[in-house]
Every structure is written in C-alpha cells, then in structure tokens.
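pinned: reference chain
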Amino acid sequence: MSPVPPFGFATATRVLFGAGRAAELPDVVGALGARPFVCTGKNPARHAQLLDRLPAPRLVHPVPGEPSVETARLAVAAARAHRADVVVAIGGGSVLDLGKAVAALLGNGTDPLDHLEVVGRGRPFARPSAPFVAVPTTAGTGAEVTANAVLAVASAGVKASLRGPSLLPSVALVDPLLTLGCPPAVTAASGLDALTQCLEPLVSSFANPLTDALAREGLQRAGRSLRAAYADGGNVDARTDLALCGLLGGMALANAKLGAVHGFAGVVGGMVDVPHGEACAALLVPVVEMNLRAAADDAVLERYASAARSLTGRANASVADLVAWLHETVAQLGVRGLGAFGLSVAHADEVVAKAAGASSMRGNPVPLNEEQLREVFAAAL
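pinned: its structure tokens
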C-alpha cells in the first residue's frame, strides 16, 4: 500500500446543489448584503424572473464575452459607484470569473494587474473579497468552487489568473434546471471541459485521495450523460449529472491542479477568439494520447485506466478503451480543431513556448518536451 502524502482541501464556504434551488437565491443574497452587483451573460432577460427577486437597489452588469483586464476594471468601477456590498454572478464560466474578480478587487484595490499571475505584479490579496455568490448556468467550468479568475491580457496575448483563497465564493448555488437552455454546441464544449477537469486532476502529480474520489464520481456522471445531454437538451437527469460533474471537477482541480490541456488552452485563448471549452475539447485527445506514450511510470497508466473504468462503466476497461471513448465522443459532439479559429502550424513556436511555461503544466502527470508539445499542438489543429 502506497503512503498518503500530506494534502489540503479548500472550496466554497457553502455549496447548494439541486433542481429548483435557484428559488433560494434571493434569501441567500439578502443574507450577505443589501446592494447587489449582479454579473450576467449578455442577455440578462434570460433570467429576468430570478433577477427581479433580488434585493433592491441592484445593478445588473451584462458580460458580453470572456473577461479581460479592461472589462474587469470597468466592472469594478461600476460596482464601486453602486456602493455594492455583495456580488452575484449568474452565467457561464466567463461571468463567474468576472464576478470573482470584481468581488476580490472591491476588497483589494482596483487594478487587476496588481494581482495577476505571469504578466502582472502577482501580489497576494491581503484583504477578504466582498461576499460573492456564484450561480452557474452552464455545466462545465467549475468556476463556482475555484480560487481563481481568468482574465485575458490583450497586450500580452495571453490569459492569466487572479488567484488566492479569498476568491473562493461565499456560496455556490448550482441548479441544473438553469442549464436547460444551453444549445448543443455550448453543452458539448462545457461538458468536455467538465470532463477534462475531472480527468486532469485524477492523473495529476498533485492528486490526493479526496480529489480522486471527486474526480472519479465526476467522470462516471460525464460518461453516462454527456452524449445524452448533447442529444436532448431537455433531459433533466443528464443535465443534473453534468452539473454535478462540473461542480466536482471544480473542487478537484482547485486542489489537485490541471495539466497540459489547460496549459495549452489558456495560451491559445489569449491569442485567438476561441471559447475556453472549445479549446479544451480540441486538445483533450491529443494530450491524453501524448501523455500515454510518454508515461514511463505504471502508476500513471493505472490512473488513466481508472479513468477509463469510470467513463465507460466497465470494470475491465483499458487505456485503449479510454482513448476510443474520447475519440468517439469528440466526433459525436462535433468538436472543431483549433485551425477553425485561425491557428496554424505557423503559430507553433509561440504557442509551445508559452504553453511550456503555463502554471497548469506543473500538474501534468509526465513532463513533455518541446517536440512532444509541438506534436500535441499539430494534432489539435
């Protein structure tokens, strides 16, 4: 029996999960503050009934796309002008990330670059965030239980994170019924992101018994319901499985890190306009195949075999079965290669150099050299 290394675990202060629990949001928000600043997707009317029940005065702030340093500055300024004392985010991963950034900066100054990793000054957050309630409407990013917020930095052509314990939400409210309106393409991208965020922590060099349990449960849910949710967006059971997969994946990645899929995805997302979930979906199979070829440790192969058993539901599933299942699913869900977003082999030098230094690479179960990273990128095109 192998020894258990020391580990820690952190997540949102409070997690509420279940169909219909969005009805509790007004009371949850009201217990935290009286002047909510509410981040939503570009169409707030989609959740008008929910928004109308939140405490007044409230300020609704639509988020038109993936957040950047500039949009974070504007949102913080708007929240300060409103004298917000609680931040709420109702939407996909981009909306939740902006909400986390606003809550953190309300308590810690105004400039994201003071705290941003890699391309910013990287200062830790010295004071608590404003109270923050995360309400995901897509099942995939797990941002409702992670301690970072990803922002695009146009001047550097990358995405980087604000990170720290204070970014963990006060409340994560996950209602699968809020995901019923997701179109198939969004279901595919966010669902494969959720799957990846269970798979990468499971095989991560920072995995621990607690994250293993969460990741395996998440993979089981994705294995039985991802294709079903894509085929029938109104399948509540399938949507519930994916919402739980996303939640469990967020808990796992926040405590066991990710890997090369996200190492690449953060880079390409900063270079071209590709949604994060679609970037992860395009990179998933090439990274898994490369890691399996590069693995020199039977323990790594066993972790991938464990993932195969969880995804397929078969006790004798092998790593070959894992690769086959992923290939079939990516094809069935209509995943596009990165070339569809304007990337080509001409970008290989820049992508590989930036990906090699990405923080997510530290969790990859095997070190990948430059040649191997180039091969992954080429296959993802």
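why pinned: The chain is about 50% helix and 10% strand. The two ends are 42 Å apart (CA to CA).
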